[in-house]
Specification:
The structure is a homodimer of 115-residue chains.
Chain A lengths: L2 H11 L2 H13 L4 E2 H8 L3 H13 L3 E6 L2 E6 L1 H18 L1 H11 L9
Antiparallel strand pairs in A: 1-3, 2-3
The first copy, chain A, binds a DNA duplex (30 and 30 nucleotides) through helix 3 and helix 4.
Chain lengths: 115, 115
Amino acid sequence: MDITTTVKSLGALAQESRLAAFRLLVRRGDTGMAAGEIARELSIPHNTMSSHLAILTNAGLINSRRESRSIIYSIDFGGTRELLSFLMQDCCQGQPEICAPILDSVLPGCCAPNS
Amino acid sequence: MDITTTVKSLGALAQESRLAAFRLLVRRGDTGMAAGEIARELSIPHNTMSSHLAILTNAGLINSRRESRSIIYSIDFGGTRELLSFLMQDCCQGQPEICAPILDSVLPGCCAPNS
DNA sequence: ATAATATGTCGATTATCGTCGACATATGGA
DNA sequence: TCCATATGTCGACGATAATCGACATATTAT
């Protein structure tokens, strides 16, 4: 992942509605959520939400698939992982002090590495 | 860390010059780097860089201290860690699939948790 | 005090972003 | 086919952000 892509991804998340939509989709996993449902849930006009979803898609953070009349958006595991990996490695290699506490706080509750 | 703060921090990093400056400072650690030195290194006018540094500071990602004529900027461990923790926990709790591979890739090269 | 160096602030200009009404397209049912 | 539903696209407006010249402030040396 290069700087330009990283900037684009960070910019995609640096907006309240988009961050909210992204977090919503993270929790839904592969099941995803229809465009309209997201707009309703967040109380945002459907066309505004549409352009936000396009930006998140373009940044490689979410995917979409059609299901009859609806278009279901879901998180893009690959892109999301790439962004976080890039940020984490950037900090870790420069200053382990930053990452170690993060890992300690994230590990217990969720995912075990080397498992 | 709440959503508004997160958006502000992400926005601060979602700009090429600022992300470059941030990465530079991560690598310098507590030693930091003078404002002018950063501007010169990145070939950016000093006043433009000054406003970028102000934005990163306001987002809680970097700190500054005066050292004779220079003002030395350095990474803010606390703020940086908070942002990354928030993003990681957000994803981990929603979808462990995202975080596990990140941890696996970050752990070997750098910091060991529970150490 | 004066000058040189280092950085910050102000203000104006340009570019980009967020928002939303109006219209367009796609799907499925009557 | 005709209509309702679901979503996307276009265009315009207002708001915010990026950039940089000019000026202001702070520090140190002579």
